[in-house]
Design the sequence.
């Protein structure tokens, strides 16, 4: 009689992280920067034993807000100085940010297999306007599409809200996915990615638009702290779904010929440096204590007459009160 040994361990089927368990959040802008807080409706529904208001929710600074205490480098300073005024520089930056938001949204659709028609106009939610695709924006999209073509990607989440009440910061992750580089890439294609053949696993990605490839090194030195923070948030929320790689995907519009991009992996552990940055931010700003404007009650009229200027003039000095002045004026008009 033959005997056959069988292992009691069975390979578990792949289980993607359940992103529906994440806390839904909303963005709140403060003078110091951006913060996020759980939706009031979510708290009222999930934690009914406590009375919730806008103010008593936990507000946490975003990862990018904390990073603002870190100098962006001499390149950024030179760029800022090249404009006639700070307002002009911010106008350009805001325009680029709006275009970047649209590119992010379309890359998300592209990652899910949705075709993008550049002949069709897109809607800008910030300005409430319909806009045409510009050539630089199209080149950004072609760069991102090339990244998807060079890798086998299984998307696990796009625009993932990472709110952990045990942490002192929060943020929204661009993408988390299972990834593997395609085989037999050409030498020029292989230069675009830090992933090598045989490397596969879960990757955490922050996506950036890059207009000048010569600034990549300086920008990456700043961005790698951002993905470190996202990795710490993710693994605190999903300890059973660890991150194998964390990287910054730079999509470009300065390429000529074939589209190019650059996937830079963060291979060093910068947790201590990031934690020190968080402590410094709180030392400068303290915990967030929001004060929301109270809605003005409807139907209440002012007790003062809007037609009367309340500034004291020589003629009014003779009167004891404004009300007496108004009454005296009425008596003179009658007389």
Sequence:
């Amino acid at each position: 009689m033959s005997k056959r040994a069988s292992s009691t361990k069975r390979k578990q089927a792949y289980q993607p992280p359940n992103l529906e368990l994440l806390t839904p959040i909303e963005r709140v802008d403060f003078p110091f920067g951006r913060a996020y807080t759980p939706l009031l409706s979510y708290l009222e529904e999930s934690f009914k034993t406590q009375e919730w208001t806008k103010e008593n929710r936990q507000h946490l600074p975003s990862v990018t807000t904390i990073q603002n205490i870190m100098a962006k480098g001499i390149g950024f300073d030179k760029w800022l100085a090249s404009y006639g005024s700070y307002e002009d520089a911010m106008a350009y930056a805001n325009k680029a940010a709006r275009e970047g938001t649209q590119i992010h949204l379309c890359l998300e659709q592209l990652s899910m297999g949705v075709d993008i028609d550049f002949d069709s106009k897109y809607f800008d939610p910030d300005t409430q306007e319909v806009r045409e695709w510009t050539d630089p924006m199209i080149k950004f999209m072609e760069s991102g599409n090339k990244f998807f073509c060079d890798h086998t990607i299984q998307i696990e989440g796009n625009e993932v809200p990472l709110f952990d009440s045990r942490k002192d910061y929060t943020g929204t992750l661009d993408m988390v996915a299972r990834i593997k580089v395609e085989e037999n890439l050409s030498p020029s294609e292989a230069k675009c990615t830090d992933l090598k053949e045989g490397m596969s696993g879960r990757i955490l990605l922050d996506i950036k638009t890059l207009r000048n490839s010569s600034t990549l090194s300086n920008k990456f030195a700043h961005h790698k702290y951002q993905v470190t923070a996202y990795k710490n948030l993710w693994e605190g929320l999903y300890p059973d779904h660890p991150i194998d790689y964390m990287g910054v995907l730079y999509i470009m519009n300065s390429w000529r010929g074939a589209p190019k991009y650059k996937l830079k992996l963060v291979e060093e552990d910068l947790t201590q440096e990031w934690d020190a940055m968080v402590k410094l931010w709180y030392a400068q700003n303290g915990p967030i204590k929001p004060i929301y404007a109270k809605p003005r009650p409807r139907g209440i009229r002012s007790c003062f007459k809007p037609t009367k200027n309340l500034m004291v003039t020589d003629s009014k000095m003779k009167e004891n009160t404004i009300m007496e002045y108004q009454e005296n004026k009425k008596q003179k008009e009658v007389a």
Observations:
- The chain has nine helices and ten strands.
- The two ends are 129 Å apart (CA to CA).
- Residues 86-111 form the longest helix (26 residues).
